Amino acid sequence: MTRLLQIADRFELNGADVLENVAYARAYNTDHQSRILLEAASMMIETRFALMIVDSAIALYRTDFSGRGELSARQMHMAKLLRSL
Length: 85
Prior knowledge:
By secondary structure, this protein is mainly α. The chain has one domain (2-84): P-loop containing nucleotide triphosphate hydrolases (Rossmann fold). 61% of the residues lie in helices and 0% in strands. The longest helix has 17 residues, at 30-46. The mean pLDDT is 90. Residues 1-85 form the RecA family profile domain.
């Protein structure tokens, strides 16, 4: 959020007004990330959004799924997430 406020200041915009137009969520695991994506989809239907940014969508998969034994499950879960995006 700090970076958004810096950008708002650069363009002489009111930071509070800018942040009112931003929805932010942090995912803590892959299942949480999937739930957040579903909630975001609902929000986008109800409200006008112009941009969605997903930072490090794959990073959580490295921690939640480890080793070759979980490779297939990880790939299937990841494919479902990417299709949703």
